[in-house]
Amino acid sequence: xxxxxxxxxxxxxxxxxxxxxxxxxxxxxxxxxxxxxxxxxxxxxxxxxxxxxxxxxxxxxxxxxxxxxxxxxxxxxxxxxxxxxxxxxxxxxxxxxxxxxxxxxxxxxxxxxxxxxxxxxxxxxxxxxxxxxxxxxxxxxxxxxxxxxxxxxxxxxxxxxxxxxxxxxxxxxxxxxxxxxxxxxxxxxxxxxxxxxxxxxxxxxxxxxxxxxxxxxxxxxxxxxxxxxxxxxxxxxxxxxxxxxxxxxxxxxxxxxxxxxxxxxxxxxxxxxxxxxxxxxxx
Amino acid sequence: xxxxxxxxxxxxxxxxxxxxxxxxxxxxxxxxxxxxxxxxxxxxxxxxxxxxxxxxxxxxxxxxxxxxxxxxxxxxxxxxxxxxxxxxxxxxxxxxxxxxxxxxxxxxxxxxxxxxxxxxxxxxxxxxxxxxxxxxxxxxxxxxxxxxxxxxxxxxxxxxxxxxxxxxxxxxxxxxxxxxxxxxxxxxxxxxxxxxxxxxxxxxxxxxxxxxxxxxxxxxxxxxxxxxxxxxxxxxxxxxxxxxxxxxxxxxxxxxxxxxxxxxxxxxxxxxxxxxxxxxxxxxxxxxxxxxxxxxxxxxxxxxxxxxxxxxx
Lengths: 283, 313
Ligand SMILES: Nc1ncnc2c1ncn2[C@@H]1O[C@H](COP(=O)(O)OP(=O)(O)OP(=O)(O)O)[C@@H](O)[C@H]1O
Ligand SMILES: [Mg+2]
Known about the structure:
The complex is a heterodimer. Chain A is mostly helical. Chain A has twelve helices and no strands. Helices cover 36% and strands 27% of the residues of chain B. In chain B, helix 3 (92-102) packs across helix 4 and helix 4 (107-120) packs across helix 5 (136-148). Chain B is an alpha/beta fold. Chains A and B meet through helix 2 and helix 5 of A and helix 2 and helix 3 of B. The structure holds adenosine-5'-triphosphate and magnesium ion.
C-alpha cells in the first residue's frame, strides 16, 4: 500500500468509532465487578510502602539512607508491580475483553455494527489501557512518595535535586510500557484461547525464568526491557545467582522501541485474528 | 448493487454436528418466512447471513456484500437475534443510542433515530428503564428496535414474535407488512408456519439442516401435495404387485428392485396406496416384509409445521 493510499483510508471514521466504543468500555474497565481486583492489586504495594514509612517514623530509625530505600523501591517495582500488580491487572483487564463478552453473551452487540473488527479490538484495547495506565502509574507515584516520606525534608531534597524525580519518571514510563506490553499480549491470549488462564501462567513462567535464559532468548520477553528501563539495577536471581546469565541491559531507547514494536506486532495480529471470531456462546 | 440475498451451496458444520447443508437460496425483497422445527437450522442460516459464524463450505452474498465485511454489511442489515442477553446495566434507550454512536452517527442523529425506533415498537415509556427489568415481551421489542433503528434495507429477525402478547403480535405483523411493502427484505423465522404464512411473500421450509421447500406459500402447499411420495416395499412377488398398482392413477412410478425382492413406488396419494396394499395382502396372500416411506421429509415437516391444520386452509 502506498503512503497516499494509507492517507486516504477512513481514519476519522475509525477514530469516531473507537471513541464510541471507548465510551462504553471505559465504564466497564473502571466500574465492573472485576475492576475491584485491579484496585486491590494497585493498592497493595502502596499499602506496604506506607507501612514501611509508618514503622520507620514510630521507631525513629534514621540509620538507613535514602540510597538504600531507593534500591528497595527497585524491588517493590519489579516484584510488587511488574510481576504481580500490573501482570495480573493486565490479565484481568485485557484477556476478558472478548472472552468475557463471549461468556456474558453480549459480544454480538458490537459484531452487528458496521465497524471493522480490528477497529473494535483497538477501541477495547485503548479503554483497558487507559484504566491500567491511570491506576498503576498513580499507584507507583503513591508508593514512591509513601516509601520515602519518613525522610521528610531530605526526601524533598532528593526528589528535587538528587535525581529522585527523574527516577520516578522512569518508573512511571516503565509502568505505562508494562501495561502496553502485557495488555497487548493478554488481549491476544483472550482471543486465541478459550481459557486464557493457562497461557497467562505460561507467560508468567517464561517471564520468571528470564534471568536464567541466554541473551538471545532474554530479548523475547517484556520483563527484559522493563528491567532495562529501571533506574536502579535489580538482581532477582537470589540464591540461584550462579545460574543467572548476566546480560547487559538494553539502552533505554532500544528498550522503549522494543516494547513498542512488540506491542504493535501483537496488536496487529490480534486485529487480524479478531476478523475471524465466530460467535459460539457455549450452551 | 444486487437486490438479493444469495446462498450458494452453503454448508455449516459445528464440528461433527450438522447446522445446515447444501443450501441454495436467492431471496428477493419482501417478507420471507423461514420456517422449521427446533434445531432445523433457522438460527444457523441467520448467523451465517450476518457473519456471526462462517460457512464450512459455499458462499453468501447479501445485496452483493460478503458477510465477512461487517463494516459494509451492517449499513444495510439489521439483526434481531435469538440471544436474550444485553450489555450490562443498559436502558433500552442507551442500547440503541450507543449502538448508533458505534455506527459513527453524530449525537443528535443517534438520539433521533433511537427515539424513532422505540416509538415504532411502542417502548417509549420504558425507554429509560434498565433492560434487566424488562419483561420478556419488552426485551423482544427492544431487540426489534435494535434491528431496525438504523433503517436498514435487510432485516433479519429470529423468532421476533416469541413472547409477544396478541396485541403486540398484531402490531408487529403490521409493521413487517409495512416494511415488506416498502421493498425491504424482512426475513422472519418461526417454528409455526401459520404464524408467518399470511404475511409472507415467500417461505423457506427447513428440516434437519436442509431446505425442503421454498417459494410462494401457495406454491409450497401444492408442492407438498403434488410432490409424489416414495415408498419402499420388500415383498415376495413385486412384479404382481406392480402390475396391480399401475391400474391406480395416483401411482406415478413403480420400479422393481434388482434383486426381485422389493420395489419402489411413487404415489401422489399415500393413503389410497396403503389401502390397496392391505387389500392385496388379504386377497392374494402377498408376503410383505417391510413398508417404509423413502422420503417423508417435506410431508412430515409440513404436517408438523401446520399442526395438521394445513389441509383445510
Ligand atoms: N454452537 C453450536 N454448537 C454445536 N451445534 C450447534 C450450535 N448451534 C447450533 N447447533 C446445532 O445445529 C442445528 C441447527 O440449530 P439452529 O440453532 O440453527 O436451529 P433453529 O432452527 O434455530 O432451532 P430453534 O427453533 O430451537 O431456535 C441443531 O442441531 C443444533 O444442535
Ligand atoms: Mg433458532
